[in-house]
């Protein structure tokens, strides 16, 4: 029995030299690897759709991959496999910034062009970062939207994640600057933290509504804050009277947006982000995008601004009652 | 078998390595060693383990052919080196897990211990400014200390290993997360240190040499020393081993402590490969290591199994994981699927484990039935 098994193994192995028939590769096409943070995240699945659209336009061989498990080594392994395959371009969103940078540097050493999107690597591990939005862009969009809903006047309050969160504070600072400049009729009455918890956000919003009866709008800068504030407004019976605007995922807010409790959800369109990143990667490989470029034409997105080594996707996207059903992330 | 162990232990107390008693013992275990080099290895063996290893070789052969046909750039130098580079940590854990499982125990904490050692290593280098090689040795020591916690509870208080290591599984990961507040990480290690995880030595990934050294060491311990035999005796019948005068507590402790030390070593190698020390290092590795060991034919009840089985089990898992990532660019129902194979990884690992075990068990049953048929006299004859 053992011998038979062994002979069978040997026979199988003997066929190896003859089975190396390869599938026809997409010869001559530029090969691009598109790395997701995680395959199970609808946000990245939407990025992938944009990447595929760009690949179709540019006629390239696109490979999409990403980890399923929480193992931090998985992204590195994917990149190293791509180095072995000799891809031309790698477009990556980094889960673990420093560890993936190790692998991306290796890729650059092997002559592969590297672009990051969504979550950046160390600057020396990539050429350009496709930046979904600047702090300024997010803050301005939030206050502009609130102002247009309240005719640029009245009290408004902010619900944030924690008072120490660096990026949220940058956005709030941008909101304050813009409001002072353009909407002097508006007044920021309070900033409350919700500890990134929807129930806490609802509680804080309820307190805000009773403390400030003239409140015209609640702006939530963290994603759990938006549905939390909406629930509070709905339960207080102030639907429509107090506008809710925030930064969050359309899926978490769909019901409130359709009921008219939440007026607008601000977020960049992940599909555009994926589309831009692949366009940038291909342009980099073809020499159309080089250090020092000040703007970059990304297909249907038109000319985009480059700040240093990040390509700015542009102003964030606004999801409203009319368009929210077109997005499932 | 027990008597063999007891006597060999008695022999060993007077003379450390008694090759004669060793050979006698190994023969009983189903493996014979011959002076004829052509008869060396796993093929000229009898008994269930030998058969099991042949099954694994068949599995590996099937995998190689399958992935070479379906995947791209599978059997290329760069990829073969990736197969090993990416799985060294799991290989190390599986090797260190083998003695533990031979005693009928289990160590669920090694993956978490990797996370803890990785974080401690990062802190020692980045906050205390230690040389990475010194810190690496200290991280191995920390691993051994973590293992000693398991050892104390399992061997000292005689608590069930499954429960003890389930506790330390949470404890070690929790400590690592507490030290880093869950999100801090350490990076920016020196190029010389990163080379441990990213360079080649004599055409082979550097860390593979460490794996080979550890593998030979554990093979020697398990198959060539009285310590190794006592592990099997403990797994076969712990109380019996105790009555036979074996130092059960000491030897059990050694198995858990060495598993901890190897987990520390695996953590250092992982950090060198990734360039970042973070609390989430090694998540889920303990289960992959146990899968490799069990796939290698080591009995989960203890008492039987060998290191070569573990190595083959580990290689078949490593090939499966890498091979799946080579399959890409297929069109299914008109839609281009880039890497559907990765989603199948868990499914196929499970199938591989179950079918290899089932195949081995059924060949054993068949052989037994045939043997019984030959030995029982024909009832018709007078």
Would you mind describing this structure in some detail?
The complex is a heterodimer of chains A (329) and B (382). Chain A contains ten helices and 14 strands. Chain A is α/β, with parallel strands linked by helices and 329 residues long. Chain A is 43% helix and 21% strand. The mean pLDDT of chain A is 88. In chain A, helix 5 packs across helix 6 and helix 7 (198-211) packs across helix 8 (225-235). Chain A is elongated. Chain A has two domains: 31-132 and 270-313, Rossmann fold, CATH 3.40.50.2300; 135-267, 3-Layer(aba) Sandwich (Rossmann fold), CATH 3.40.50.2300. In chain A, the strands form two sheets. Chain A has an eight-stranded mixed β-sheet, sandwiched between helices. A six-stranded mixed β-sheet of chain A has the order 7-6-8-9-10-14, with helices on both faces. In chain A, strand 3 (89-92), helix 4 (97-109) and strand 4 form a beta-alpha-beta unit. Chain B has a domain at 91-304. The radius of gyration of chain B is 22 Å and the shape is globular. In chain B, the strands form three sheets. In chain B, strands 1-4 form a two-stranded antiparallel sheet. A two-stranded antiparallel ribbon of chain B has the order 2-3.
Global geometry of chain A = elongated
The quaternary state of the protein chains shown equals heterodimer
Structural class of chain A: alpha/beta
SSE topology string of chain B:
HHHHHHHHEHEEHHHHEHHEEH
For the residues shown, what is the average pLDDT of chain A?
A: 88
Number of helices of chain B: 16
Q: Level of helix content of chain B?
A: 55-70%
- Major β-sheet profile of chain A: 8 strands, mixed
CATH architecture of the largest domain in chain A: 3-Layer(aba) Sandwich
- The arrangement of helices and strands of chain A along the chain is HEHEHEHEEHEHEHEHEHEHEEEE
What low-confidence regions of chain A span 5 or more consecutive residues with pLDDT below 50? none
Shape of chain B: globular
**Spatial strand sequence of the major β-sheet of chain A:** 2-1-3-4-5-13-12-11
Side by side, the strands of the main sheet of chain B go 1-4
Distance between the termini of chain A: 55 Å
């Amino acid at each position: 029995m053992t011998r038979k098994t062994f002979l069978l193994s040997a026979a199988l192995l003997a066929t190896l030299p003859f089975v190396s028939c390869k599938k026809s590769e997409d010869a001559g096409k530029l090969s691009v690897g598109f790395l997701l943070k995680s395959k199970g995240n609808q946000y990245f699945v939407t990025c992938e759709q944009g990447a595929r659209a760009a690949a179709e336009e540019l006629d390239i061989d696109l490979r999409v991959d990403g980890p399923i498990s929480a193992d931090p080594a998985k992204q590195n392994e994917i990149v190293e496999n791509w180095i072995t395959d000799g891809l031309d371009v790698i477009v990556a969103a980094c889960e673990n910034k420093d560890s993936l940078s190790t692998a991306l540097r290796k890729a650059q050493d092997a002559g592969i062009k590297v672009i990051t999107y969504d979550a950046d690597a160390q600057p020396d591990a990539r050429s350009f970062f496709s930046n979904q939005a600047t702090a300024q862009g997010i803050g301005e969009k939030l206050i502009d939207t609130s102002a247009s809903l309240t005719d640029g006047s009245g009290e408004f309050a902010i619900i944030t994640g924690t008072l120490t969160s660096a990026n949220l504070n940058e956005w709030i600072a941008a909101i304050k600057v813009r409001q002072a400049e353009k909407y002097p009729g508006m007044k920021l009455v309070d900033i409350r933290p919700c500890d990134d918890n929807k129930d806490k956000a609802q509680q804080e919003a309820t307190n805000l509504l009773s403390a400030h009866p003239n409140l015209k709008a609640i702006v939530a800068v963290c994603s759990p804050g938006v549905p939390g504030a909406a629930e509070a407004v709905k339960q207080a019976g102030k639907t429509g009277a107090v506008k809710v605007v925030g930064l969050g995922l359309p899926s978490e807010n769909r019901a409130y947006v359709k009921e008219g409790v939440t007026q607008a959800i601000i977020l960049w369109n992940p599909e555009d982000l994926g589309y831009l990143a692949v366009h940038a990667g291909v342009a980099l490989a073809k020499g159309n995008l080089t250090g020092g470029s000040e703007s970059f034409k990304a297909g249907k997105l038109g000319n985009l601004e480059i700040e240093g080594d990040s390509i700015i996707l542009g102003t964030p996207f606004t999801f409203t009652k009319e368009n929210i059903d077109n997005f499932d992330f | 078998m027990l008597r063999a162990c007891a006597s060999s232990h008695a022999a060993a107390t007077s003379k450390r390595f008694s090759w004669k008693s060793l050979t006698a013992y190994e023969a009983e275990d189903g493996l014979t060693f011959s002076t004829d080099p052509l008869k060396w290895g796993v093929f000229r063996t009898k008994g269930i383990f030998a058969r099991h290893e042949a099954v694994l070789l068949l599995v590996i052969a099937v995998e190689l052919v399958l992935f070479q046909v379906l995947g791209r750039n599978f059997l290329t130098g760069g990829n073969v080196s990736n197969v090993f580079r990416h799985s060294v940590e799991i290989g190390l854990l599986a090797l260190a897990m083998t003695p533990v499982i031979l005693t009928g125990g289990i160590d669920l904490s090694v993956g978490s211990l990797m996370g803890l050692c990785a974080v401690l290593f990062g802190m020692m280098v980045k906050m205390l400014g230690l040389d990475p090689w010194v810190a690496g040795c200290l991280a191995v020591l920390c691993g051994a200390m973590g293992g000693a916690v398991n050892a104390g509870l399992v061997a000292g208080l005689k608590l069930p290993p499954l429960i003890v290591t389930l506790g330390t599984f949470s404890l070690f990961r929790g400590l690592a997360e507490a030290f880093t507040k869950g999100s801090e990480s350490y990076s920016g290690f020196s190029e010389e240190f990163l080379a441990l995880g990213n360079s080649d030595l004599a055409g082979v990934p550097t860390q593979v040499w460490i794996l080979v050294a550890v593998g030979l060491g554990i093979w020697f311990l398990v198959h060539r020393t009285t310590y190794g035999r006592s592990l099997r005796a403990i797994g076969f019948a712990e109380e019996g081993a105790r009555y036979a005068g074996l130092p059960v507590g000491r030897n059990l402790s050694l198995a858990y402590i060495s598993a901890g030390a190897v987990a520390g070593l695996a953590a250092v190698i992982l950090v060198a490969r990734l360039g970042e020390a973070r609390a989430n290092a090694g998540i889920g590795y303990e289960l992959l290591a146990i899968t490799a060991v069990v796939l290698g034919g080591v009995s989960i009840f203890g008492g039987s199994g060998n290191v070569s089985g573990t190595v083959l089990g580990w290689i078949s898992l490593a090939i499966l994981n890498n091979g799946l990532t080579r399959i890409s660019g297929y069109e299914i129902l008109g839609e281009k699927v880039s890497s559907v194979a990765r989603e199948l990884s868990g499914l196929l690992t499970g199938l591989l484990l179950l079918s290899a075990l089932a195949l081995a068990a059924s060949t054993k049953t068949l052989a037994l039935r045939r043997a019984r048929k030959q030995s029982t006299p024909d009832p018709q004859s007078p």
